[in-house]
Design a protein that fits this description.
This protein has helices at about 1-15, 30-35, 40-45, 50-55, 60-100, 100-110, 115-120, 140-145, 160-165, 205-245, and strands spanning about 125-130, 135, 150-155, 190-195, 195-200, 250-255, 265-270. It is of the alpha+beta class. It has 2 domains: about 35-100 and about 215-274; about 100-210, no CATH class. The chain is elongated.
């Protein structure tokens, strides 16, 4: 009985000195538990391209490449957007200086003497403000009989700047010295568009259109730069995940071949190394 008590005492003492939670008491390599998950590298690269490659200790050129594309894309987007906005301010000011509502009304009667009221009504409209009340240009022929020109102001919004440069309906508002608008020369002239549509231009209107077109093109290029940035994040994240997955020996699954089995499959083998 005494012998049994002594054995239990020494066994209890040995367990008391054994730390169940110490990793040193196991045969697992400590480094294997500290391996970063592939998803961690992926999320880092999705946040900042190249960060996951740096964590994976990948080739330095990959980290530099992803960061360089990111920086170039951001700088390009900012510069293109700023330039587009500057040109937008330029063409809007040019339109303000060279197009007026009163001139549009008078020249429309001159250019289209038999159809001028229909031209004013047209297919597109400009917004008008008269003493705090709002109207459209399709009512202008009636409004001018009630109000003076000083009382009528055109609202210079996005539609205004698009319409005065895009549609023949509003060509009469430009301040070029008037001449025949239906020939192919002079201050006012007509061009053929794709052998289908005729467009009436003036020199000032054409310059305005060129400025507006350049601004819109730069905005498109800025969007392309943003798209490049988005793809750079995605590609960097996928690359970081794939490389990290290979390095960390995550579970591998394969089918074992069997000559006995009808389908040649002898089972599924899952290998996990640490």
């Amino acid at each position: 009985m005494r012998l049994l008590i002594l054995l239990l005492f020494f066994q209890t003492l040995s367990f008391a000195q054994y730390n169940l939670y110490s990793i040193n008491n196991y045969s697992i390599k400590q480094d294997s538990l500290l391996q970063p998950l592939p998803t961690k590298a992926m999320f880092k690269s999705l946040l900042i391209p190249g960060w996951g490659q740096y964590q994976n200790k990948d080739d330095i050129w990959k980290t530099v490449a992803f960061i360089s594309v990111e920086i170039a894309g951001i700088i390009s987007s900012i510069q293109l957007t700023n330039k587009a906005e500057n040109i937008r301010h330029d063409f809007e000011k040019y339109g303000d200086d060279h197009w007026t509502l009163e001139r549009w009304y008078n020249n429309s009667r001159l250019i289209f003497p038999n159809n001028w009221k229909n031209i004013l009504i047209g297919t597109h409209k400009l917004s008008l403000n008269i003493n705090g009340n709002y109207y459209f240009t399709d009512e202008l022929s009636n409004l001018i009989e009630i109000y003076r020109w000083n009382d009528i102001s055109v609202i210079r919004d996005r539609d205004f700047y698009e319409n005065i440069g895009k549609y023949d309906q509003f060509v009469g508002g430009w301040d070029d010295k008037y001449d025949n608008p239906f020939d192919s020369k002079g201050n006012w002239y007509t061009i053929q568009k794709e052998n289908v549509e005729s467009i009436i231009l003036t020199k000032n209107k054409n310059y305005y259109r060129e400025l507006r077109h350049e601004s819109n093109q730069l905005k498109h290029y800025s969007r392309y730069a943003v798209t490049t940035i988005m793809f750079n994040h995605i590609i960097s994240g996928l690359d970081a995940f794939i490389v990290s997955n290979k390095k960390n020996n995550f579970p591998k699954i394969r089918l074992n071949y069997s000559r006995i089995n009808k389908w040649g499959v002898g089972g599924v083998q899952i290998t996990y190394a640490w």
